[in-house]
Specification:
5-stranded antiparallel beta sheet, 4-stranded mixed beta sheet, about 35% helix
């Protein structure tokens, strides 16, 4: 699909081909250099896939955009080498791949930088009990070497808001430990130790004005109810105290009244007895 990158000042401008630009600061000090080197990763990946079946022939010195280099022809070797062992599970199929076709050329400068790379090949392999055949090709060439380049910053109308790195990246690295290398990097460029992503923090949302009024009305009503209950409890307590204080006197008066009534009854009984005896 392709990708474009511009680094100027302290900002990175990135975009996939045919899309709009994203602008942000580098995540690490070495990110701009890592991005530059990443544009050569397809060359390295294609060569790594086809290398076991390659035979190289030196074709002598050559020039590419004014820079001296060495041209090397690439073709299929009569006896391909055994592929290297793979440590990652998803790459185990490469251990038994067979390079069936290969052709191309490479031009390297005196420091080994690839000025031109043209490769085409066919690889067969077994996976999950089935045989597959894969055709691949690559064409890469550096131009304008040594010529000044005017770097223009994309216009604001061509730049969209850059999304934050999603937590799915952390979840992905944590779940694929030992299966795939982590995507997140430390500031020094080494792979970061996978850890489960922290859940996102929900932003605080102010309640609507109506809800605030309703809550205040409920709080005021609860306060009034509590005051009313307190007054009622105080009145009941006072009445209990008054009853408790008058009880001894009331009991004494009741006992005195009972005694007087009994005395009167006894006297009336005695008078009746005397009258009966006189009548006899």
């Amino acid at each position: 699909y392709g990708r474009e990158a511009i680094f100027t000042g302290d900002k990175l401008y990135l975009r996939p081909r045919y899309q709009r630009w994203h602008r942000r600061a580098p995540e690490t000090v070495d990110e701009p250099l890592a991005l530059r080197d990443s544009f050569f990763s397809p060359v390295a990946a294609t060569w790594d896939l086809l290398a076991p079946g390659a035979e190289l022939t030196d074709l002598g010195a050559t020039q590419v955009s004014g820079r001296s280099g060495r041209k090397i022809a690439v073709k299929l070797a009569p006896r391909p080498a055994k592929p290297a062992a793979e440590t990652l599970t998803q790459r185990k199929w490469r251990e038994h791949r067979i390079v069936e076709e290969l052709a191309g050329e490479v031009v390297l400068d005196d420091k080994g930088a690839p000025l031109v790379v043209k490769l085409a090949g066919t690889v067969s392999f077994m996976r999950d009990g089935r045989r597959f055949k894969m055709r691949t090709s690559l064409a890469s060439e550096l131009t304008g070497i040594g010529a000044p380049v005017a770097i223009s910053v994309p216009a604001d109308a061509e730049v969209v808001a850059t999304p934050e790195r999603p937590r799915e990246v952390d979840d992905r690295d944590f779940l694929l430990q030992g299966i795939a290398p982590p995507l997140r990097k430390n500031p020094d460029g080494t792979a970061a130790t996978p850890a489960p992503a922290a859940p996102p923090v929900a932003p605080a949302v102010a309640p609507p004005a109506e809800a605030t009024k309703d809550k205040k009305a409920r709080d005021d009503k609860n306060a009034d109810d509590e005051k009313s209950d307190t007054k009622s409890r105080d009145a009941d307590s006072k009445a209990d105290d008054e009853r408790s204080e008058s009880t001894p006197s009331d009991k004494a008066d009741a006992r005195k009244a009972d005694t007087t009534s009994r005395d009167k009854a006894d006297a009336a009984k005695s008078d009746t007895t005397s009258d009966d005896k006189g009548a006899e």
